[in-house]
Amino acid sequence: MYRIKAYFKNQVIVRYFLDQYEAIDFRDTADAHYPLKVTFEKGVYPVRTFVVNSWNVVMDHNKNPLRHIPDLNTRHMVMQVLAWMWCIVFSSYFGSMWMFGITAIAHVIVLAAIAITVGTFAVAKKRPNFFLRLEQRTNGYHTPSRTRYLYHEGKRIELDPNDPGGEHE
C-alpha cells in the first residue's frame, strides 16, 4: 500500500494506492501542479481505507475494470447481470430457490434506489431549475395536470391570465 500526500497552499490531498506505478503516476501528476511538498510512503493503510477501496474496486463502475466499456448503459447492464449471477450463487449456496427470489428482489430494490439517486443528482447538477415550481421556471402558470379552460353550460368562461391558479389558492 502506498500513500501519496500533496501539500498545497490551502489544502492537503491524500490518496492511497495498491499499485506502485499508479502511486508514482499520481505523485508525478500532483507534482506537476506545483505543491509545496509531496510525500511518498509505503506500507501505510488504514482499515477504513481498505474497506472503502475494496467496495469501490467491485461496485464503482468508474474504478472497476468495467470502466473500459465506453457505453454507460452497457456498463450498467453488465453490473445488473453480475448482480443476478450473485443472487443465483447465494441462493444455490443456501439451497433454496426461495432465497433466490428474496435476493433478486432485494437487488432490484437496491439497484433501483441507486439509479434513482444517481439520476436525481445528475439532474440537480445539470438542470437545478428542474426542481423549482413550474410557475417559477416559466414565470407563469401551466400545470400539465390542470386545464386553464373552464366551461359552463357549453360556453367557455375566460379566466384572468395573471391568475396563478391552483386548487386551493
Strand order of the largest sheet: 2-1-3
The computed structural class is: alpha+beta
Identify the overall geometry: flat
Helical proportion?
40-55%
Number of strand segments:
5
Mean pLDDT: 78
Give the biggest beta sheet: 3 strands, antiparallel
How many structurally independent domains?
Answer: 2
In whole angstroms, the N-to-C terminal distance is: 63 Å
Count, helices: 5
H/E element sequence:
EEHEHHHHEE
Uncertain residue ranges: none
- Taken as a percent bin, the fraction of beta residues is 5-15%
The radius of gyration over CA amounts to 27 Å
Description:
The chain has two domains: 45 residues; 77 residues. Helix 3 runs antiparallel to helix 4. The chain is flat and about 85 Å long. The protein has 169 residues and is an alpha+beta fold. It is built from five helices and five strands; from the N terminus they run ββαβααααββ.
